[in-house]
Amino acid sequence: MTLSTETYAELREIAARYPEPRSGLLPMLHLVQSAEGRITPEGIEACAELLGVTAAEVSGVATFYTMYKRRPVGDYHVGVCTNTLCAVMGGDAIFERLKDHLGVGNDETTEDGKITLEHVECNAACDYAPVVMVNWEFMDNMTPETAMQIIDDLRAGKEVHSTRGPRIVTWREAERVLAGFPDGLADDGPAAGPASLVGLGLARERGWTAPSSDEGGEQKGQNQ
Question: pTM here?
């Protein structure tokens, strides 16, 4: 398998965005996944050639970050947070239910190629625990039942939206966005939900403000 001429040109386009081309490696790897469904040897070689580095250096990056996959990913990557708070709030139960429901284990894909299931580390959405992510979009306050319904709807080809608004696109489409090619859906949902903004609301109600940088410098000087 070889990368298409179009993909190769887009990899070159990404590298050209940066003063130091190798700074573009992460989005370039996302583009490889968008085109190939995973990080392929051909994709690694192409990135290395365009950036003037070794394939070993590219492979080292691709194997360090868990978002880069060496095996094919399904149309929808379902990540269940099993870190402390999500686990306590029901994340472990959700993960076990989905494994049984789909007949797959961790980091495995269903036979129809629709769903890849993975337990993931903290998604920085603890105020909405337990959280499931579908192609990196938040599904907040999940239960085993609601998570299963989302999975069944996705497999049936129904349109599914994140609990924060955005329509769920396929994994390859999401990877293309992470490569820096917008899909026009950035404004479909809020950047943060109400629970995340409680502290900000209280600060505004009570007139709290952060110290200015000058005040911070003065305080530091006094402490010395």
Answer: 0.85
pLDDT in tens, the chain (224 residues): 578 999 999 999 999 999 999 999 999 999 999 999 999 999 999 999 999 999 999 999 999 999 999 999 999 999 999 999 999 999 999 999 999 999 999 999 999 999 999 999 898 889 999 999 999 999 999 999 999 999 999 999 999 999 988 899 999 999 999 999 998 877 777 667 788 888 999 999 999 998 887 755 555 555 55
Please give the full DSSP string across 42-109, using - where no structure is assigned: HHHHHHHHHHT--HHHHHHHHHHSTTS-SS---SEEEEEE-SHHHIIIIIHHHHHHHHHHHT--TTEE
Structure tokens at 118: 């993975």
Q: Are strands 115-120 and 76-81 parallel, antiparallel or unpaired?
A: parallel
Find out whether 154 and 76 touch, Cβ atoms under 8 Å: yes
Residues with Cβ within 8 Å of residue 80, at least 6 apart in sequence: 86, 91, 94, 95, 98, 117, 118, 119, 120, 130, 132, 147
**Centroid of chain to Cα 14:** 19
Do 85 and 73 touch, CB atoms closer than 8 A?
no
- Identify residue 46 by its one-letter amino acid code: A
Q: Could you tell me the two tokens for 131? A: 């959280």
Per-residue CA distances from 196 to 39, 131, 134 (Å):
34, 14, 20
Strand, helix or coil at 157? Answer: coil
Q: Which residue has the tokens 């386009």?
A: 13
